[in-house]
Amino acid sequence: MPPPEVEFDVATRWSFCSWCDEWEANGGIQGVGYLEPNSDAKFRSRRQDAWLQEFRDLLERQKNGEPGHGDGNLLSEDESGAAKLPPDLVFATQDDGETQTRSPSDQSKHAEALLDDLPHRRLTDVQEDASACFLCAKIWSAFVQWATQNFGSPGRLDLSTSRVEMAGLWPKRLPEEGESVDDYTGYTDDGIHGRLCFIQINITVRDPTVPRRWIGPSVTLQRSCEQPSRVADIFEGANAADDDPLTWPEAEPYTARRRPLTADPRLFRKWKALCDAAHDDGCRPGRLPIGSRPLESIRLVDVESMCLVETEHVEDVLWVALSYVWGTAPFRVLTSATLEELKQEGALGAPWIPATIADAITVTRGIGERYLWADSLCIVQDSDVDKMRFVPRMDAIYGRAVLTIINAAGDSALSGLPGVRPGTRFQQEEPFAIGAGHGSSNNTTTTKGEIGADGGVGSDGDRRMWLVQTYEPLRTNIEIIGDSRWFTRGWTFQEAILSRRWLIFTPEQVYWECRQATWREDACWELPLWHQKGQTIIYEPAFYEGAFQNLWDLSTVQSFDETYQCLVHSYVKRCLTRESDGLYAFSGVLRAMTQATGFEFLWGLPKIFLGVALTWPCCRVRPRRRAERCQIDVPVLRRDGEDGGSNGGSQSKTVEACFPSWAWVGWVGQVYFHEVFGHLDSEHASLEFYHIARNDMRAASDEDGRDSLVIQHIPQNQTFRHYRNDYGKPFKGTNPLWRQNTHATVSISDIPTALLVPETRFSLLIVWTSLAELVLELNVNEPRGKDERDKDEEKSYVLRTDDGLKLDVMWDQHPPPFNEHEQQEDESYWKRRVECIVIGRDSLERSRERGQLSVLIVKRHSSGGLSREGEVAIWEDDWNRLSNRRWELVFLI
Fold first, then answer.
1. When you count CB atoms within 10 A of the terminal residue's CB, does the N or C end of the chain come out lower?
2. Are residues 537 and 565 part of one domain?
3. Burial (Cβ within 10 Å: 0-12, 13-18, ≥19) of residue 69
4. Does residue 356 lie within any of the structural domains?
5. Closest-CA residue to 568 (of 549, 546, 583, 581)
């Protein structure tokens, strides 16, 4: 449905309320737009050296726990995520076509005014002024649209405590040639690089379902001109671009462009041609590592013959991939019964084809490609054999695609791609002018939707700036598509991550994103000639803030560490219809990482860093165990004793197994990497881990193949990353008295028979470690901090020794709730005995000078296996003092 319209008096179309007047009068608007890079080589070299050194100093201060933003030259961010402008930036303004610059004192004043000088405002005030103030009308209209979509009506929200704020918003850019990862912040705040500033209006209200939480949309305004160019101007008229992908109509960089209600496929084709011509191999399809198991064949939609085709010559064919949400509404898919029928020419022109796939066929044809891959039509959905041919090869299917079409607008396969068909997009934004003299046209008579002949400016000498609202979704997350249904689904995560280039359909706009640029329908962002001059190309990723822009550049342990943590942190937020897909929907990413680094994975954890990765935290929350089983590829040991994993001579067997409790993939819930986790190459506890594999030298002598099983040792990283804590004190290790013979032998005969059944044998993690029994207590009446008002936060979990000594601990995962029989005479007090095992060291070192052990609260099963139920950090010297600790061979399931 189109967004609601807000009526306002046409006689005051260019008037502003006192609040908007104050904002404009303070000069905040003058920073909006694009400032070219400083081309003076001497200035750049001198200024860049100083800035980069300052940035390195800042990183070092932050690393050492010292204040980091005292100098004011580097970019900082406030809590809302809006970038604060450094005080020494030089803003460029346009006045009669001339570029002017401000003095440092002036620009500091304007930058501060842009962000800090304005008083906060309530939505009730905005609503009151919406009939007379054009800017307020836009703010109120955006809020009504958002509130209606999410809550049915604005009336459900409390506007008396709402806030409306304006802030500068700086998209990220690409690093220039020669910049290293350590030098690159992603923001243009150094007076050297070109930079682009939007105005972001943030609206926040209390969540009616969770009153302590603040929510709301953001409205973004971009620089425009009185008559912005149209998308059609690229292809029509005397100044239209020819077939050369590097030739585009002249336009002020990054200014607004009018996009049509029905998308123009010629723009998508030209974007693709520009990327092909101007970008390096980072954007090339097929450059993604695709593992050692080749894609032996593929089934595709032929968009010219409108039928399914199959080919074994995968290397000789190109295709577009589709990433979308199936949704709950039923629709027809490929089955064994319809396969031959859909191979007939014209069969896919049938009206039953879901709208999203039908529109993707149109887009594929429009960008000049012949083949489309869509899972519901390219995998036989009632054939497990067919699924096993293609589902494990998602890394190849999406990694080799020419580009991936993402439907970030709909909630089902029936939704369609907005803009492909007439009547599927509704928003038409008109530019509006602000600046000196903006109110002088109050007597100009215009009709709704028209711009006055003088553009709303009273005299030729009046300074004004033209703005227009972007066609971005009204966002409540950092990511442009962060509130889409597509962004919440588990399978779509790896579909996007494994792709090289994306054509992203949002409700009112289409974006192009590749590894080196972002382009959009509503703005002139292509700038091919600027790129040839070596000047900045703004990169504003639609999702993940560009963290995965160079995803497969994993040449160092540090880059692998950062990427892996980002991937897991993002993936576990997603939802899956079937819990059994928890590992499957991430396996393509893991295979690609193995191919890029040589690091293999065991249930989603990197083997070489297993001793640290096992300490994954969930920040005291209680995730939920996955109850369903899943299919995994079990490595088969070759005759030389090495496993046949992705690195050589691939041999593996697909089996069905239970999810293990010791791996994050065995749980549903957030894993808090980054926030409360250190580095994968931090020091581990020097434990030795083993798991079960198959041996191709032994033939199975019984039905379940037990005789072919073999114990495989998992070598651990021995090159540790050490860092100082926040107090600047060197880390002092404690003599690990608890650790005995970690190299004690382990054989199949040591494992309880009940654990060698097919569903658990490959979920086992075997380790000699230290175990002790402790007393877990809970007292809900124990006083807490005054800010912790939520009842659940008032709970206080305590671990005690048998003699009553309370241990100083830090929880990374709270244990399961107490049972009724564990309640003591005091009804607010519970107690139980729990078994605890050492699993690793705390990778964060908890900002103190003494070491901590990562300890699992475990449950012992009748089979002899132990399962993780909680996690806690305990001081190593405290664990050494436990009188009842013992050394035991543990079987984690």
1. N
2. no
3. middle
4. yes
5. 583
